[in-house]
Amino acid sequence: MVFFLIQVKYALMRRTRHTRGCQSFPMLLKNISDGMVKGRLKTKRWRIIPDSRTNRKQNMTSEKPALPAYLDNIRIILTRTSHPANIGSAARAMKTMGLHKLTIVAPNLMATPMTENPPVFDPEHPQSFKLPEESFILASGAADVLENATIAASLDEALADTTIACALTSRRREITAPLQTPRDLVPELLQAANRGEKVTLVFGNETFGLSIEEVQACNRLMTINGNPDYFSLNLAQAVQVVCYEIFSQTDSPMTHLQQEDHAATHEQIKGMVAHMESVMNDIGFFNRRNGERLMRRMQSLFGRANTQTEDIDILRGFFNTVSHRIHKKD
Fold first, then answer.
1. Alpha-carbon distance values, 175 to 49, 78, 200, 216, 221 (Å)
2. Which of residues 44 and 266 earns the better pLDDT score?
């Protein structure tokens, strides 16, 4: 029963209100049940149709900044990965941070509730290996990263054209390369990528990490510093941390996420303050107060506050409502 609910959960992740060829919920459950009887979950990839409401004009800049071209020179390598979901989640983490090059070395996939019969890797024919559906489900919108991923039989093959190969490790290693954090090492990686050199970051198996031979094949060592009493990051989480550090140091602008500034003019602020003065006078606010001095302070306050035209509209709307209520009572 637990496995059934897990499979329902993953299947529903694929289902949206706006789909082509969308199945009804009872039919979806029936297909899941039939798939379990036959020994595997049948899933169907639906193409999501954007909700028309997302196309509403928003007060944000629409032009998105281009990703730095040199990010194409950075590749993530996963060696001997065992869980199909981790491969998909790692792909999602990569694409979120602008990275698209993925190499999977000698995958050794385990059986899971969703992938009961995982594909077996053949080192003689590495490119014939096909990732299971579970990996694509966890990749979400990063299926293209998986579809374009390179499958290699050995780490040496995957590192053939690289100049900087960075091994991710959480253990003390008896080798000469200094152990550095992502923040310390990423500047060197970005400089190399910007020069056109091929840079790789190598992540090991979820249980055993990188072997001694795999670490020795690399010329840089990186570790994600953490709690010495409990240092256990999931593979995809580790990929996310490193990819974020890479992207954050590209200094890519966030202008597409920021609202457009429409600063209020002196005339607009002056008109709004006059409107405020009228309402304050109507409600008797100036009794026993120096109204002229107070309104000068209001003019100065809104002039210093980087007041936006939208702020002016909100305040004037509020003043109109107050005036309407006052005159209605009269």
1. 52, 22, 19, 8, 9
2. 266
Q: Please list, residue by residue across 153-166, b when 16 or more beta carbons sit within 10 angstroms of its beta carbon and e when fewer do.
A: bebeebbeebebbb
Same domain, 236 and 309: no
| Integer angstrom CA distances of residue 65 from 58, 72, 253, 321 | 18, 16, 7, 42
Instruction: Flag whether 85 is in a domain.
Output: yes
* Number of other CB atoms surrounding residue 108 within 10 Å: 12
CATH number for the domain that contains residue 235 = 3.40.1280.10
| 18 and 48 Cβ atoms separated by less than 8 Å | yes
Model confidence at 177, pLDDT cuts 50, 70, 90, reads confident
Domain assignment present for 48: no
Residue 129 has phi, psi (to 5 degrees) of -70, 130
Q: Cβ(117)–Cβ(123) under 8 Å?
A: no
Give pairs for 324-327: CB < 8 Å, separation 24+. 326/279, 326/282, 326/283
Q: Domain boundary residue among 230, 251, 272?
A: 251
Q: Regarding beta strands 199-203 and 150-152, do their DSSP bridges make them parallel or antiparallel, or are they unpaired?
A: unpaired
Are the C-beta atoms of residues 217 and 158 closer than 8 Å to each other? no
- What pTM did the predictor assign? 0.67
Res 74: pLDDT: 98
